[in-house]
């Protein structure tokens, strides 16, 4: 999978992609991540990429020309399965959307900044508008990092055990059940006997029961 990310602050994405699972995915050749500095497409020698809001009001808006120039250049080289704008007023990022995006070959992400992007970019290019929650960040870079991590870990071969991703929270509209490791006894707290029994069908039944109970308690909306 190839993921292109367009941003006016590329430095913010250096660290998230340089460690852990996303790094290993790149090293294995399973994911290509390319970050594009929007200022390379500035409208003048001063590096301008934004302007004042028509109609008045506070804040600045990313202009159409730099984004269009960058998008046109990238889209001339390949087709994209999704062109995604990270924005607070987008669809909330949930596991089903992540699953669908992970099936694509090429994704193009646009990070919002300031007051956002000129609406005409959204109308002309964007196929998906995605939010990582009901709050506002300084830009879309952290949202892009979240989306990339969620998608890349689902690519075949990225995780050491591919079944691990299938048992994550939200894959079946349930939160994940409690997990334990050694030691079996710690400060008077014991691992449930069923997990030490070796009875795999009964263990799976217990896990499902625990996942259902945890979901009912913490996220009943997932069961509706």
UniProtKB/TrEMBL annotation:
This is tRNA (guanine-N(1)-)-methyltransferase. It is an enzyme of class 2 (transferase). The keyword Transit peptide does not apply. The lineage of its organism: Bacteria, Pseudomonadati, Bacteroidota, Cytophagia, Cytophagales. GO terms for biological process: methylation. GO terms for molecular function: tRNA (guanine(37)-N1)-methyltransferase activity. Coiled coil: none annotated. HAMAP family: TrmD. InterPro entries: Alpha/beta_knot_MTases, tRNA_m1G_MeTrfase_C_sf, tRNA_m1G_MeTrfase_TrmD, tRNA_m1G_MTases_N, tRNA_MeTrfase_TRMD/TRM10. It comes from Hymenobacter citatus. Homodimer. CDD domains: TrmD-like. It is found in: Cytoplasm.
